[in-house]
């Protein structure tokens, strides 16, 4: 049951994942939109590397219900995790050419 839910969530999130290729100098932008009830909570961006997770960045959810990760440089390609304690875990595969990504988290599908 839990595995099926995760597969459905990953499929759902992949529908809302928008990745646009910009030139290398444009930097990286990842916007995570969620319900306004999460305002002020911390959203973590972690990178998987050799079986471990390492924190890349953390931001707070704004009053508009978004968490915005930005960097002057593109992220190295790899497997990443967007995490909000205790129940939101979204895995992303990001290529080094992907620099503008927007994800919408529908928390009704999580509960």
If you had to describe this structure to a student in words, what would you say it looks like?
With 111 residues, this protein is mainly β. The protein is 14% helix and 49% strand. The strands form 2 sheets. A 4-stranded mixed beta sheet has the order 1-8-2-5. The chain has a 4-stranded antiparallel beta sheet with strand order 4-3-6-7. About 6% of the residues have low confidence.
From the spread of the alpha carbons, the general shape counts as globular
As a percent range, the share of strand residues is over 45%
The chain-level mean pLDDT equals 79
Radius of gyration: 14 Å
- The secondary-structure element order is HEEEEEEEE
Question: What descriptors fit this protein?
Answer:
111 residues; mainly beta; 4-stranded mixed sheet; 4-stranded antiparallel sheet; 8 strands
Give a quick precis of the structure.
The chain is mainly beta and 111 residues long. It contains one helix and eight strands, in the order H-E-E-E-E-E-E-E-E. The chain starts with a helix and ends in a 7-residue tail after the last strand.
Task: Record the SSE blueprint.
Layout: H1 2-16, E1 18-21, E2 28-33, E3 42-49, E4 52-60, E5 66-71, E6 78-84, E7 88-94, E8 98-104
Parallel strand pairs: 2-8
Antiparallel strand pairs: 1-8, 2-5, 3-4, 3-6, 6-7
């Amino acid at each position: 049951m839990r595995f099926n839910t995760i597969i459905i969530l990953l499929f759902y999130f992949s529908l809302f994942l928008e990745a646009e290729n910009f030139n290398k100098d444009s930097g990286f932008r990842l916007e995570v939109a969620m319900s306004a009830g999460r305002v002020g909570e911390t959203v973590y961006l972690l990178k998987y590397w050799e079986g471990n997770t390492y924190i890349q960045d953390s931001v707070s959810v704004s009053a508009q219900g978004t968490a915005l990760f930005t960097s002057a440089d593109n992220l190295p390609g790899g497997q990443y995790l967007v995490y909000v304690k205790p129940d939101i875990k979204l895995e992303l595969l990001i290529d080094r050419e992907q620099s503008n990504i927007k994800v919408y988290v529908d928390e009704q599908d999580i509960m």
